[in-house]
Write a structure and sequence with these properties.
The complex is a heterodimer.
Chain A lengths: L3 E6 L8 H11 L8 E2 L7 E2 L3 E10 L2 E10 L17 E3 L6 E3 L9 H4 L7 E2 L6 E2 L21 H5 L5 E5 L6 H8 L16 E3 L43
Parallel strand pairs in A: 1-11
Antiparallel strand pairs in A: 1-10, 2-3, 4-5, 6-7, 8-9
Chain B lengths: L4 H28 L8 H23 L19 H25 L15 H26 L10 H26 L4 H27 L7 H5 L6 E5 L7 H5 L6 H15 L1 H13 L2 H25 L13
Helix pairs in contact in B: 1-2, 1-4, 1-5, 1-11, 2-3, 3-4, 4-5, 5-6, 5-11, 6-10, 9-11, 10-11
The chains are: A alpha+beta, B mainly alpha.
The complex binds iron/sulfur cluster (SF4) (2 copies).
C-alpha cells in the first residue's frame, strides 16, 4: 500500500512562506474552484489556505531558538476526520492514502473540522464547503508535466528544500530514509491518528571534548621542541618500531 | 469552541419535544395500569403534535448551520461510522413515530382494527408509543454522542455528555408538559410537575458532575506535543497570518472570562432552582402563568447551558492559534 506524505525538515525551514503562497496560487487556479479571500487589502483580511507557516519560540531569552513550523493536513493513516463525516464527502483514498474532500458532496456541516486535532481544515466562506490540503493530487499524477515537477506545489517552491515528498510506506523512499535516520516524528501522537506527514527535528552537531583531552598526556609539562628519544632498549610507542 | 446558535436551538428545541413526548407516554402508561385517570384522545394527539412541532423547529434551526442545506439529504449516507449521520436518520424517525402516535390517538384506533385482539384498550397507541420512546432515547444518544465521540474535545468526551443531553431534554419536556396539562388536563399537573422536579434534581447532579469533571481536566495535548519539541517553554510568535481565519473563528468563543463565568451561574440558576420554585407555585395554585414562566425561564437557562457547553470545550487546534504575530 502506498501512503504519500510530506516530510518537513524544521532544521532547514527558514519561515519564508513560499510554500504558503505557491500552495494558494496552485490550488486557487485549479478545477476545484478558487479559494476565497475577503478584504485581502482591508483591515481584517481573511481567507482560506491549505498551508500555514507558524513561528514558535523555544526557551527563554537569551537562550531562545526560533522554530518555523509549516502546517497542513497530515493525511493521517487513521484520520479521525473521515468517519465522522455524515455524507462521505471526506474520504481517504485507498490507493495512495491521500485524505480528500469531495466538494460536490460536502454539506458544510464543519463536523470534520471539529474532529481534526490539528486545525488544518478550513471552511471556504463563499463556496461553503470544507477544504484542506490535497497533496496537489491534481498535479502529482499529471503526465503532461515533466517527471521532476510531479510534486506538490509547496515542495517545488521551497527554496531550502525543507519539504520532501514521497511514499512513507516504501522503506527505501527518500522520505522513509529521512524519517528513519534523521529522527522523524509525528504531531500529537497522543491521539493515535498516525499522521503520514512527519517532521524532522532541529539538529545540531556537537562534539564532546573533555578537559583531559585538551592536554597531551605525554607532554605534561607543556614543553615544545624536539622530544627526547627513548633509548634503543626501551619500548617504542607502538612496541614494534625501534630507533 | 464557538457556540453556534443554530446548534444551540437545534439541541434545546428537540430536547423539549423529546421530553414532552416521554411525558405523554409516561402518563399514558400510568393510565394503562390504572394509576392515572383517562385523558381525552385529543390531549395526547395535540401533545404529540406539539412535540413534533418542537422537533421540526429544531430541524429548521439546524439548517442554518449547514453551508449547503440543499444537500442535507446526503448526510444520511454514513450512518455506519458517523453519529451525526445517525442523528440525521433518528430525527425524522422519531418525528414520524410521534406523529403517528398522535394520529392513532386522534383516530382512536387500536390493534383490533388490524384483526389483532388483545383485549387491552389503547393497545395500538401503547405499541406505537413504545417504539417512539425507543426512537426518542436513540435520538438523545445520537445527539449526545456527536459531541462525546470526539475524543480530543476532552470536556465532551464523557458519558456524562450523553446523560446530560438526555436528562436536560427530559427536564424541559416535563416542564412543558406541566404547563400543557395546566391548560388542557388539570388532573395531570401534579403528576408532570412532580416528575419535572425529580428530573431537575437528577439533571442537577449530572450537570454539576460534568462541571466538576471538566474543572479538573488535564489536557493531553500541549505546545510540546503540538510541534514536537521537548522544552518546557514554548510560546507562539506568529500564527502565520495577520487577520482571522476559519480556525480563529470556529474554535474560540471570544467572550470575556467574566461573561463566561456569569453564563455558568446564570444557567445553574435558571435551569434548576428557579423552575423548581415556579413549578411548585404553579402546582399549588394550578395556574398556568407560573408554569409558563417556569418553562420560559428554564428554556432561556438551557440556551445559556448549551452556550456554555460549547464555549467550555477547548480544542487542541487552539494550541496553534495563540498569537497573531
Ligand atoms: S490532519 Fe486533520 S484533516 Fe488531515 S487527515 Fe489528519 S485529522 Fe484529517
Ligand atoms: S463539512 Fe463536509 S466534509 Fe466535513 S463532515 Fe461535513 S459534509 Fe463532511
Amino acid at each position: 500500500m502506498t501512503q504519500l506524505a510530506l516530510v518537513i525538515d524544521l532544521n532547514v525551514c527558514v519561515g519564508c512562506h513560499a510554500c504558503v503562497t505557491s500552495c494558494k496560487e496552485w490550488n486557487t487556479s485549479g478545477d476545484a474552484g478558487y479559494m476565497s479571500d475577503d478584504r485581502p487589502y482591508g483591515e481584517d483580511p481573511t481567507g482560506c489556505f491549505f498551508n500555514r507557516v507558524q513561528t514558535f519560540e523555544v526557551g527563554e531569552y537569551p537562550r531562545t531558538e526560533t522554530v518555523h513550523f509549516p502546517k497542513s493536513c497530515l493525511h493521517c493513516e487513521d484520520p479521525p476526520c473521515v468517519p465522522v463525516c455524515p455524507t462521505g464527502a471526506s474520504y481517504k483514498r485507498p490507493e495512495d492514502g491521500i485524505v480528500l474532500v469531495d466538494y460536490d458532496k460536502c454539506i458544510g456541516c464543519k463536523y470534520c473540522s471539529w474532529a481534526c486535532p490539528y486545525g488544518v481544515r478550513e471552511l471556504d466562506e463563499h463556496q461553503k464547503v470544507m477544504k484542506k490540503c490535497t497533496l496537489c493530487v491534481d498535479r502529482i499524477y499529471d503526465t503532461s508535466l515533466p517527471e521532476s515537477e510531479r510534486k506538490p506545489a509547496c515542495v517545488l517552491a521551497c527554496p531550502t528544500s525543507a519539504r520532501l515528498f514521497g511514499d512513507v510506506h516504501d522503506p527505501d523512499s527518500r522520505v522513509s530514509v529521512a524519517i528513519r535516520e534523521e529522527g522523524g516524528y509525528t504531531l500529537m501522537p497522543e491521539w493515535g491518528t498516525h499522521p503520514a506527514n512527519h517532521y524532522l527535528p532541529r539538529r545540531k552537531t556537537h562534539i564532546s571534548v573533555h578537559v583531559d583531552e585538551l592536554e597531551r598526556y605525554d607532554n605534561p609539562l607543556k614543553k615544545e621542541g624536539e622530544r627526547p628519544r627513548p633509548d634503543i632498549s626501551e619500548p617504542s610507542l607502538d612496541d614494534v618500531t625501534s630507533w | 469552541m464557538h457556540p453556534a446558535f443554530s446548534v444551540i436551538f437545534l439541541t434545546t428545541l428537540i430536547g423539549v419535544g423529546q421530553g414532552l413526548f416521554l411525558a405523554l407516554y409516561t402518563a399514558e402508561s400510568y393510565h394503562a395500569v390504572g394509576l392515572l385517570p383517562a385523558q381525552s384522545p385529543q390531549f395526547y394527539a395535540w401533545g404529540a403534535w406539539v412535540a413534533v412541532a418542537f422537533l421540526v423547529a429544531g430541524l429548521v434551526a439546524s439548517f442554518f448551520h449547514l453551508g449547503h442545506p440543499e444537500r442535507a439529504w446526503r448526510s444520511a449516507a454514513r450512518w455506519r461510522t458517523s453519529w451525526l449521520s445517525r442523528e440525521v436518520i433518528a430525527l425524522p424517525v422519531t418525528m414520524g413515530l410521534m406523529f403517528v402516535y398522535g394520529a392513532v390517538h386522534y383516530l382512536g384506533w387500536d390493534l383490533a382494527r388490524f384483526g389483532i385482539e388483545t383485549g387491552l384498550p389503547g393497545d395500538l397507541t401503547l405499541l406505537v408509543g413504545a417504539l417512539g420512546v425507543i426512537a426518542t432515547f436513540g435520538l438523545f444518544l445520537c445527539t449526545g454522542m456527536i459531541y462525546a465521540s470526539i475524543r480530543f474535545l476532552q470536556e465532551w468526551a464523557s458519558p456524562l455528555t450523553v446523560l446530560n443531553y438526555t436528562l436536560l431534554g427530559i427536564v424541559s419536556g416535563f416542564t412543558f408538559a406541566t404547563l400543557f396539562a395546566a391548560l388542557f388536563a388539570t388532573d395531570l399537573v401534579n403528576f408532570f410537575g412532580g416528575w419535572a422536579i425529580i428530573a431537575i434534581l437528577a439533571a442537577l447532579v449530572t450537570r454539576v458532575s460534568s462541571l466538576l469533571r471538566n474543572a479538573r481536566i488535564r489536557y493531553k495535548s500541549s505546545p510540546q506535543t503540538a510541534i514536537g519539541v521537548r522544552h518546557s517553554r514554548i510560546s507562539q510568535r506568529s500564527q502565520g497570518f495577520m487577520g482571522g481565519s476559519f480556525n480563529t473563528r470556529e474554535f474560540f468563543h471570544g467572550a470575556s472570562r467574566l461573561w463566561f463565568r456569569s453564563v455558568k451561574w446564570l444557567f445553574l440558576m435558571l435551569v434548576f432552582p428557579v423552575p423548581v420554585v415556579l413549578i411548585s407555585l404553579g402546582m399549588s395554585s394550578d395556574s398556568p402563568i407560573e408554569l409558563a414562566a417556569a418553562f420560559m425561564v428554564q428554556y432561556l437557562g438551557l440556551l445559556a447551558e448549551r452556550w456554555f457547553f460549547f464555549a467550555q470545550a477547548n480544542h487542541p487546534q487552539n494550541l496553534y492559534y495563540q498569537t497573531v504575530g
